[in-house]
Fold each of these.
Amino acid sequence: MKNSLSQRTINRLTQYHTILRDYTKKDIKYITSSQISQLLHIDETQVRKDLKNINCKGKCNVGYNAKELKDIIENVLDYKIVKRAYVIGAGNLGIALSKYSKFSEFGLEIVALFDNDKSKINTMIGEKKIYSLQELGEQIKKTDIEIAILTIPNKVAQDVADFAVKSGIKYIWNFAPTIIKTPDNVKVWNENLIGSFLQFCAIENIC
């Protein structure tokens, strides 16, 4: 089902999931589409449409069972399937991502980091080792990991992406502030942090 959903729908479902996690932790049993729409400042009709698309039905005058809806979204978005990944770039952002323990709740396991800085190679970030970038292909052969998270400067992003693809990477989550080109069989998601911030400023009219 996930493949039939638009990126915007998937993005909204992840936001619904965040709300539902809070509700279940507080032991609140039911949630309405109106409550979700108010928390996210979106149209209630859109919320109901999204939930209908994942075959979730609420109870009249009651709403949706929060735990059941949370579980449905997790199943639709494959949260329970573990996706193992490497971080390429052991700078501040790469280290922060590798330390973020909540990723495991969404099925992402960061296994190791890679960098070209000799002072960082063979050191540890918690239980995760930093390898030389030149060892990427060798490690991929051992682990069959196909996902790389790029947290590197834009001036080297394309070269590193090319090297990662040649080493066997099939999916790239790109935090570098540039658009990288890859073969058609390699999927890239560009995480534009500056763009998101500027969009936030424009929406909230922050001068």
Amino acid sequence: MAWRPGDPGLYLIGQPGQVWRMVDGEVQDSLVLDLRDRTSVLGLGSSETGLLGIVFDPRDGRMFLNFTDLDGDTTVSSWVVEGGVADPGSEREVIVIDQPGPGHNGGGMQFDPEGNLYIGVGDGGASNGADARDLTNPLGSIVRIRPLLDGPGYEIPPGNPFLGNDDVAEEIFAFGMRNPWRLYRDPDTGDLWFSDVGNSTTEEIDLIPAGTSGQDFGWNLFEGSRRIRRGEIDMTPAVFEYGRDYGVAAIGGVRYRGTDIPGLRGAMVFGDLLGRLILLGDGYQATLERLDMGTLVSVVDGPDGEIYLLSIFEGVYRLVAG
């Protein structure tokens, strides 16, 4: 889900390739865009392929979509949107990332005010995590690029940590991730938060503080704080991690700045696929909450500061005080 600046509509994507627009709780009759003939989906609702991410460029309002194409590779393209409908002829292909397998495609995207686009890229699921440690490709990383305003493609932003290093993909902003599923850039601090889906035991919530980059978050030598392979590493630890006793896949999250739930103000709100919430307050102390809302796949903050939750089968929810 994502809001377009200056637009009252909430834009929603479906895994098969559709984009809808919802206004005042009602989904509009016309699709914003239909990419079903260009999107590969293996196992609806149970795989990590399909249309996976949406965001809008703060510079010109173009809609960016992240999807696995018919070859199974990650493709990010952008379109002009007018009157709640995308112009198919306005497409600009921004980046294509080769994927070695159908799993761990990431999909989350965020812009900063300068027009830098951050993309969560999974390790591809084909090498048991080895691709996440091969820095000649962007698998298992957060990528930072600057899409061009006058045509397809992108440039590498100044300040990327590996700019000028011929042995490392210059798009990489931070690395050592398995499947960074959702990204959130705090508009007040510039901190970049993301959730990294675990392998067999551990889910984690990670932080890249504003003004820093180049962090190694450990995969595939570590899953969370648990070492699973030998190797020298200068690892950045997770802010919070949890096990299979609570959830199965970390989702989200955002900082709450709304007014409907005063006691939650300032906390980071993450989710888990099982329809559960992780609330990180002062000192990142965690509170765990269980919701009856089905399969949670996205946590976003609206223009009103309130939190909206997306379930892949059940619909859109708004978080309210209990």
Amino acid sequence: MLQPNGQQLLEIIGKHTAAAPSLQGILLPEQMLLALQALQTAIAQDEALRQAAFARALAEHLPTPRFAEVSLRQRALPLMEMLRQCQKAGEPITWGV
């Protein structure tokens, strides 16, 4: 995953900010449920914004909106699966080590 995309996901789960960049870190098993919930919420919001943009374009006879080729859902799914597996196994996730 490219750095900007990884940073976006880390921001969503609260492990990266502009003030405190996360080049290295750890996500403990007890933090993973909240991380999953944050990702699910962000995905739902992203999809709602996309649907609203399409609806607005249709209603106002505007061109179809364009979005990134890879959606937040697609980008987040591998991380979400890793979170589930590591939570089940009781193993932390580390990066930049």
